[in-house]
Amino acid sequence: MNRFDYIRPGTVAEAVSAAAVPGSAYLAAGTNLLDLMKIGVARPERLVDLNYLPGLDAIEALPDGGVRIGARVRNADLAQDPGFRRRFPAVAEALLSGASGQLRNMATVGGNLLQRTRCPYFQDTASACNRRAPGSGCDARGGENRLHAVLGWSEACIATHPSDFCVPLVALGAVVEIAGPAGPREVPLADFHLLPGATPERESVLAPGELVTALRLPAEAAGFAAHARYVKLRERTSYAFAVVSAAAALRIEDGRIAAARLALGGVAAKPWRAEAAEAALVGAAPDAAAFQQAAEIALAEARPSGDNAFKIELARRIARRALRLAAAGTPERLPALPASPFAPLSGGLHG
Amino acid sequence: MNAIIGQPVSRVDGPAKVTGHATYAAEFDLPGLVHAAMVVAPIPRGHIRSVDTAAAERAPGVLAILTHENAPRLPYHQIPQRPQVDAQSGEQLHVLQDAEVRFNGQPVAVAVAETLEQAVHAAELVRIDYARTPALTIFDPARGRPPSEGNVKAGRVPELGRGEAEAALAAAPVRVEARYTHPREHHNAIEPHVTIAHWEGEHLTLYDKTQWVDNDRKEIAHVFGIPEERIRVVSPFVGGAFGSALRTWPHVTLAAMAAQRVGRPVRLELTRRQLYTSIGFRPHSEQHVALGATKDGRLSALKHEVIQQVGRYEEYAETVLSPTSHLYSCPNLLARYRLVEMDTNSPCPMRAPGVVTGVLGLEMAMDELAVELNIDPLELRLRNYAETDEQKGLPWSSKELRACYATAAERFGWSRRRPEPRSMREGDQLVGYGMATAIYHSDRSAATASVALTGNGGAVVRSASSDMGPGTYTSMTQVAAETLGLPLEQVRFELGDTNLPYAPVHGGSVTMASLGNAIVAACGAAQKKLADLARAAQQGPFSGLPSEAVAFHGGGLARADGSGSVVPYAELLRQHNLGWLEAEGSAQPGEETKKYSSAAFGAVFVEVRVDEALGTVRVPRIIGAYDVGRVINPKTARSQCIGGMVGGLGMALEERADWDARFGRVMNANLAEYLVPVNADIGVTEAIFVPNDDRNFNPLGVKGLAEVAICGVAPAIANAVWHATGRRIRQLPITPDVLL
Asked: Of A159, A171, B141, B492, which is most buried by a Cβ count within 10 Å?
């Protein structure tokens, strides 16, 4: 833990100006940042606390049928918003499959986009990590990398992005609204996170001082509400990061797939939209053969980055499962174990 | 009034715990308290070339930076009779006493500052230059060697057996042979280990997380070379330990050292990551089991070799061969134990140490034998039921394992199991049934307690014991209340302080069999003292009566013939102008250990559901029946058992330290990536206690139930996975990548 300045801006403009100073970090809920500061992984020289900013906390229906979600909306509030949940059920399911109730009550939409990787070498300051300390090397290569990336990784970094929320969002074409020293701009979520390449320390397109102010989902995203699921495989039933996950959304007309969205989580340094697989689904009957083909296409470029070849097959299977469940129809009520392949066990305590 | 033992009494300390009034070690708020943070070595072996503390010393709030260069040289006297909780060979880590690095995570410096944040900050500013030397970080069974002399003397023998196992195995008409592995596992109690050290002149008080205050005091007295009388250890509440707080770890010494240096009370709390290196763990184990049997399923040969990792600076070994030696009837048996030295912090006991490992291999092999023989796994166990402890050549003090098998099988519905694997399905999930036997040897140790009868009619019972979660506070209160004939509410039990009468270690399932009997004795001693006063009095209803003419019942003294009324304790005290009356009692093992072998038993049945496409295993039901002797409190006993089931489920399906051999480091040293079960993993867990009352073992008739509850769960799950899928997974945990 290092010493740092602490600034509490009153407006977005003040925040942006305060955070334009190199070494600054925005503090929202702190569910990730504060943990990383305590273990010495994040060492900001200046914390710009967004918790006292007015606004940025609304879920607004837009005139065109889309929705804008303020960056400070809490994960739990968004997931429990009846209108949002009805129109974007896979997103609600993803939100509720992440972390724990306590964390979801704090964590924010904007912060979720900027979660840092769970790579244990990133999290351990005694290890070499190009993402944490550029040029230091990557101890995950040749190390404990069972859960690392199988798509889009580089020699410099094989880490994955841990967010559940981002997976259906990228499938549904979410757009990120950004404020910054050079004025506002917006970026499709699909382009927001960066693959590691030679510069894994650059995790998103955000420039110094830029602030995520909102997320938008377009109207057409709600068109998938009847057939939209998020399915997440983890090594315990809740409170665990995804080994692999998939968001699948279909529009089915006359027994044929009229439109399809598919994205994978836990496989790459960004939420991985599988557009070629989506294209292959259009016009097909929503059956096992089509889903299998789509899953093959989605993982066609995958290759193991270590002891994780199993994730490629598992990702295919979770994609098929998500497509199958989406085709079967979004359940009337959110499942008791959201995004889980399982029903709750009777006799146990759940929540 | 005599039905307090056996009642499902709620925890007497429950309200204090849930309202935050229970003070745990970290929470003693002493005036002037300051904080310490450790610096740990990032290399598995080598030495410190140089240390630069200049920047750290200049950091705000810093009071001291201790390294091997400026730490006091401590005598580290040997304890003449090494406590059984310590490694029995080698030398414990002498913290900050030299420049050597013996394992990754070893404390090499400690920063002391006014606030925790300042201490952590200063610790990060300590610059250390290391010279790394080649390290042993790979578990290579070929390097296995027998335990050394100290461990052998303590019963961790390299070999045991009877008959001619090799020849019998070669001649056996039916044989199975397999290797089983479980990884390094960590206790991960909720409460981190923490010590507050406070010197007042030459006297040291330690507020510590410990399962054994008396030994904690002894250890620190020897480390510092000061008389035990100058040390007091206080530990009224422990937030889970599972064996990790049995012995005294180096951070306790560091806290005392730091407090001495700065002249203020110092708190040193391990971080979650440090809990993977500054305390112990369950060692990585590989085992080889070979069983020979007749065609009708009688064991004719049993060979079992267990190989475990061990640290290099000291040698911790376990009683891994104990279950194999006596769980089944078998004339020819050879069990072997080997240790592989590695550069790691030392392992230590973790719930059912050694036994859970030995039971895992043996019970998975028994399942494989049942398949080979085409005999029901339960029937195979019944055919090989050990009527006596064949290794010790002694009868059991009691054994109701048959009743356990029958009760649990009936409750579970074992008869519905179809023997063929992959033969049971529900929807697109494969269903599997599996079972295993559980056993844990029952021991008891010498213990003392005091009982004070007080003027308000109640009693205060004291002993330096611990309650890491099983319910010691509650069950001992029950024992005392029943023995004294008082209502539960009028008895208070105090523990966790070296100022109290000596208690043995709170581990190895010995607490009730040891301390419970001491409390009975202390109650009796107090009653006798009071009765003697009443009989010796010049006047009063008992004046001049012989001792056999009076008896206590109903919370007071009466004539043994039933004539006259019962005079309550408080009234007797008043008659003798006493505010209170106190007596001590003790209990210790006796001749029974020569006459009997004692153990707790269990039978565990589980159902699993396997999603074959995703490789996931769920466990909707775990049903266990247990013979633990007499049950003092069925509510806390049940909690212990379902806790053991949850722990066993974690062992089977989730728990694993990700060990990076390049660095000798556990990479998933946190509770997000080191998985333990969550509520949603757990379905029906049911613990049934079969009636028993083992007076051959001790007067209270109890055996002990902490350890037995985790034994058998993991093999039962692995056996059920085989039944569901037809795949024998011999390496734990059984994760989706393995099953895919």
From this structure: A171
Give the separation between CA B309 and CA A311, rounded to whole angstroms. Answer: 30
Separation of alpha carbons B740 and B732, rounded Å: 15
CB A129 within 8 A of CB A36: no
How far, in Å, CA of B308 to CA of B734, rounded?
20
The correct answer on CATH 1.10.10.2840 for the domain covering A224-328 is no
Query: Among all residues of chain A, which has the CA nearest to that of B116?
Result: A1
Cβ distance B87 to B314 under 8 Å?
yes
Encode pLDDT of A247-279 as tens digits.
Answer: 999 999 999 999 999 999 999 999 999 999 999
pLDDT recorded at residue A342 = 87
Kindly report the backbone phi and psi dihedral angles of residue B386, in degrees, each rounded to the nearest multiple of 5, phi listed first: -90, 105
- Is the entire prediction scored with pTM above 0.95? yes
Considering the four listed CATH numbers 3.30.365.10, 3.40.350.10, 1.10.10.10, 3.30.565.10, the one that applies to the domain covering B31-134+190-240+245-276 is: 3.30.365.10
Interface of A with B in 35-54 (CB under 8 A): 38-40
Once rounded to an integer, what is the mean pLDDT over residues B43-48? Answer: 98
Q: Looking at the domain A1-53, which fold is it? A: 3.30.43
CB proximity list for B74: less than 8 A, separation 6 or greater: B94, B97, B223, B224, B225, B253, B257
Per-residue confidence (pLDDT) for residue B1, from 0 to 100: 44
Residues of B with CB under 8 A from a CB of A: 42, 60, 117, 120-121, 124, 271, 273, 611, 613-616, 618-621, 653-654, 658-660, 662-663, 665, 667-670, 672-673, 675, 677-685, 735-737, 740
The overall longest dimension of chain A from CA atoms, in Å, is: 62
The pLDDT-based confidence of B40 (bands split at 50, 70, 90) is: very high
CA A26 to chain centroid, in Å, comes to: 18
User: In a 10 Å sphere around its CB, with 0-12 CB exposed, 13-18 middle and 19+ buried, how is residue B181 labelled?
Assistant: middle
- Domain map (residue ranges) of chain A: 1-53, 224-328
Q: CA–CA distance from A251 to each of A90, A206, A223, A248, B574 (Å)?
A: 14, 33, 7, 10, 87
Query: How long, in residues, is chain B?
Result: 740
Min Cα–Cα distance to chain B from A337, Å: 8
E strands within B114-263?
Answer: 127-132, 159-162, 174-182, 194-200, 203-208, 231-234
Q: pLDDT higher for A350 or B288? A: B288
Residue B248 bridge partners (DSSP): none
Q: Which amino acid is at B577?
A: N
Q: In angstroms, rounded to a whole number, what is the distance separating the alpha carbons of residues A157 and A141?
A: 8
Beta bridge partners of A292: none
pLDDT tens digits, one per residue of B289-347:
999 999 999 999 999 999 999 999 999 999 999 999 999 999 999 999 999 999 999 99
